[in-house]
Amino acid sequence: MEGYNYIVACIPGELVIEILKKLPAKSLMKFKCVSKSFYSLISDPFFIESHQKSYITQFFVNRPRMTYYRLSKSEERDEDLATCPLEYLDQSCFQNLRYMQSTNGLVCLWNDLGDIAICNPFIKQHVFLPFQQHKGSTFYAIGFDTTTKRHKVFNAEIFRGGKLICSIFTIGIDKSWREVSSYINFRPTDDNCVCIDGVIYFVNNYIRDIVAFSVGDEKFIRRIPFPIKEWPLRLFNFTPLLVETKGQVAILGHVYFNFGKIALYILNGTSEIEPWKKY
Q1: Pairing with 177, which of 14, 89, 252, 262 sits 20 to 30 Å away (CA)?
Q2: What are the C-alpha distances in Å from 175 to residues 54, 129, 133, 171, 181?
Q3: Total tally of structural domains belonging to the chain
Q4: Is residue 275 part of a domain?
């Protein structure tokens, strides 16, 4: 170990961090056992966030199985990208969880009965959150608070007549769910949301717009209309997909009545009239 300590002491701390950021999650879990300093560094929320930003993590859901993911470093060539089965999610304890949503490599799984699990399939760990008894249709989403570096799980329960009750759970902190303000008309879809810079953006099927929820402030902060003359009120199956591109909110979908073309709109302004740029 004396030789190891000498080598590590000769490497600048900044370089050690950059090297560790390039490693996959499974290797980092093993490196936690190297020393107390490595354990402290790899467990630090700021390091975890910077490591996540060094990788592109995309989940491709093959319903109803939820079986595929794709993980790649941003600088790798296309031929180096890997597509692998999410075998960890095939465990019997997840079999009754029908819905899925993911943020920063964490996967949120739930069902209509009130069971919900948060999984990290890359290091093969999971936790079940406190059971919630539901009387209406329910939706969950996991978000990241950029200030506290904590993940929070958002829940919306919609009752007959349109009544909405929202609650929040901070992973690693809360022991029970906390109700939060829900003054808007809001009906989210099962998996059409994205979390960017501490804000969860939802496609709202009640009024057909996009609703923004601040994970840190735990409140709704903005409503964003769909692009003008694009995706008006229409059938559910034609709702555009909400995605992230280069750290910005974007919506992707077939051009209205023209299924030979795909439209990509990126949110690039605060205008309530037309905040989108078309590509």
Answers
A1: 89
A2: 32, 9, 16, 9, 19
A3: 1
A4: yes
